[in-house]
Amino acid sequence: MSTVAGQRTVTATPPTLRRRVALDWRIRFGILSLIWGFSFLFIKVGTGAFAPFQVTLGRLAFGTAVLAAALAVKRERLPRGARTWGHLAVAAFLLNALPFSLFAYSELTIPSTLAGICNATSPLWGMVLSLVALSEDRPTRRRVAGLGIGFLGVLTVLGVWQGFHGLDLTGTAMALLASLAYPVGWIYVRRTLAGSSHSHLSLTGAQLLLATVQLALVTPLFTTLPSRFPLVPLLAVAALGALGTGLAVLIQYGLVAEVGPTTAQMVTYFIPVIATAAGVAILGESLTWSTPVGAVIVLAGAALTQSRPKARPEK
């Protein structure tokens, strides 16, 4: 997703992709919510056996394979031009390599539920940054109020009145930084690649390929080859990449083509709910009252920052 859990993609979908699909968009919206919601569980399971960089590399490799297959089926080529590839390399770092790695490292010390909730702060960071970097985004009372409410929710999740007792600050900071990287990358893409003649699928495939190369270069410097490959963690990494990165991107850009980016990005608000339910039900992670209450406050604030006042009818 351009500004959501586990995925940030590039450019608007060309009109040729606006066609009838067999599966109702609401069903695909639900599937996308489940996939991205479970991604934090997959990360937790994967880091139980593999180093965070290895989990991220596997995720990107499986995701890239899915996009490569889609490109082959549609007979599309990767974009051309050194300038385009240069911008895509930066986008790959900001939207994939960096946040994916930070989330993987964060879940070494924090629950997957907390990581999923931190991901929901991305629209809040995005509003702050867009007010600074994008002149067309002007502050309104509603959006400023949403920002304040959202960060109040963050403080509630963190239990600030307890002095962050029992909270791993480093892991939480990594998860929040990962969420910040997404809108930074989105703004960069908007400034450099918006209006590109290349298709969304072509740009996204190249972006994931570049992110995979980046992790392939970095991972050997900080990790050693695993001596064993346990089945469950390996399947978790494969699912994280093939479903949470590859298939999710295809579903997302199909939704954007059919119902528009505003409706499609609402998936962001379902991710922490699913991530929390999965972490508690499947991984047995503990949950205090402040976590779900804070999450609701965060989502309410994020929704306000993304809302737009209704246009007044002309008299």
How are the SSEs ordered, and which strands pair?
Elements lengths: L24 H22 L5 H23 L7 H25 L5 H8 L2 H12 L7 H18 L10 H24 L7 H23 L8 H29 L1 H4 L6 H11 L8 H17 L9
Helix pairs in contact: 1-4, 1-9, 1-11, 2-3, 2-8, 2-9, 3-7, 3-8, 4-7, 4-11, 5-7, 5-12, 6-12
Proportion of residues in helical segments: 55-70%
- CA-based shape: globular
Encode the helix/strand succession as letters.
HHHHHHHHHHHH
Largest sheet properties: none
Question: Can I get a quick summary?
Answer:
It contains 12 helices and no strands.
Write a structural description:
The chain is globular. Helices cover 69% and strands 0% of the residues. The chain is mainly α and 315 residues long. Helix 3 packs antiparallel against helix 7.
What structural keywords apply?
69% helix, mainly alpha, 315 residues, 12 helices
